[in-house]
Amino acid sequence: MAKQARDLPLPALTLDSASSTPLHRQIYFGIRSAILEGHLRPGVRLPASRALAHALSVSRNTVTSAFDQLAAEGYIEARTGSGSFVPAHLPKEQIQTKPGTNIVGPGPKTKVLSPSRRASWLMSMAGESTPRHPFAPGLPEVDLFPFKEWARLLGRHWRRPTTEALSGTAPGGASRLCAAIADYLATARAVFCRPEQVIITAGSRQALDLAARVLIDPGDAVWIEEPGYWPTGAVLGAAGAKLVPVPVDDEGMSVTDGLVRASSPRMICISPSHQFPLGVTMSLARRLELLDAARNAGSFVLEDDYDSEYRYAGRPLAALQGLDQGDRVIYLGTFSKVMFPGVRLGYMVVPDHLLDAFLKIRTLIDAHPSSIAQAALTDFIEEGHLASHIRRMRPLYLERQANLIEGLRPVRDQLKLMPVDAGMHLVGHFKKACNDRAITNGARRLGVQAPALSSYYRGEPARRGLVLGYAGVSGSSIKRAAARLVDAIVGS
Ligand SMILES: Cc1ncc(COP(=O)(O)O)c(C=O)c1O
Predict the structure, then answer these.
(1) What is the CATH number of domain 391-490?
(2) Cβ neighbours of residue 111 under 8 Å, at least 6 residues apart?
(3) Which CATH class, in words, describes the domain spanning 2-94?
(4) Cβ of 336 less than 6 Å from ligand 1
(5) 34-38, 90-94, 176-180 — which one is most confidently predicted on average?
(6) Could you tell me the pLDDT band of residue 2, with boundaries at 50, 70 and 90?
């Protein structure tokens, strides 16, 4: 039943005894709105609590509880012996009289506030966040992840958190985790660093963002791969970099082309172990040429080593970082592929002379990722669970790659799809000129995610094709999704 404060200067104060909002909160909101909307002007005296309680048929305690809250927040002030008043110093002109609102609304002259120009640019770069369907690139097999072990380790650290876990790790991350990663990088990737040079991040995109904040000034030229991983360009572009797309050929990013386009880049961004999306491994000759060009031009090199753990033949080529003299390569790694993307953990290796800048700026942003997750990950690595999960996934991913190629055999005259010995995705190249984006759209309508190769180019696409992630799609789903993709290609 609604009750009203008739005969008092609060006609709009209506209580609903059937509402789940307690009566004292209803009174609080009612009076607060009356003040903000200008019905109760600065200096006005409020009804006495006893009179208001009587008018609203509630207990006096209910009213005084509301008054106490209003007084604590500065909406009213109690004067001993005189009652409660709306403070005289509330700025009259900023209290709105728009009925029906209980907040300070926009005044007649205020503009609608919008995000920054930088944000608008970034938003235009951001892809749609669509539901993940087969063959969305970059997804590992999550169903076979050893969640039991992971949960056990998380539980262990939640039950007995260390002081470091509770008060926060150093900005670079938990020292044991940094040491475990430095060890792994030395043996598996020939990346040379001290554990202190490893910074734990919330995935490699955060590492990229940190590198952009620390190393880029507006107007700096940055070479990015063409085609390439679009977040790299988006994050660096948002930092004000002048993006210089440099074509990728069969040996990786073309240094000769880069030098023609911008001879003194501030930074060169590459994925040399397994170029995204084309899948090329940068030749040793090209790596040496690139490092030489970077040294001559005084450029930093940002090495994105996102999926090198998945190598199906021979040993992976060592990381570029190990070929450098230790002063210009910033190395990025991620647990998104070897664990699952939602874990949001990655790392970067930073040259000694830049560490102070990276760590200080990192502290301002988010301090560090969850210390409990870092502690669990340390054990997960040290107890060998990560290595055995990767070992189990390798033959499975290779088999899925073969299944995908087999499933797309009906369109092999149109789409060239070759087996590759690394990674989690394949690129199918269309043999004839075609609109690959239209095929992507057709596939999406059939529940298949097959991004167009042309969408990874910033300029005119040199090749048309489809980028197909197979690692996260089970055998039977690959068959079904491949059949739908065949339909989309044939029907295009
Ligand atoms: C080229 C490339 N780099 C990095 C990443 C990983 O990003 P993150 O660690 O932020 O999940 C991905 C993931 O899809 C990628 O494709």
Answers:
(1) 3.90.1150.10
(2) none
(3) mainly alpha
(4) yes
(5) 176-180
(6) low
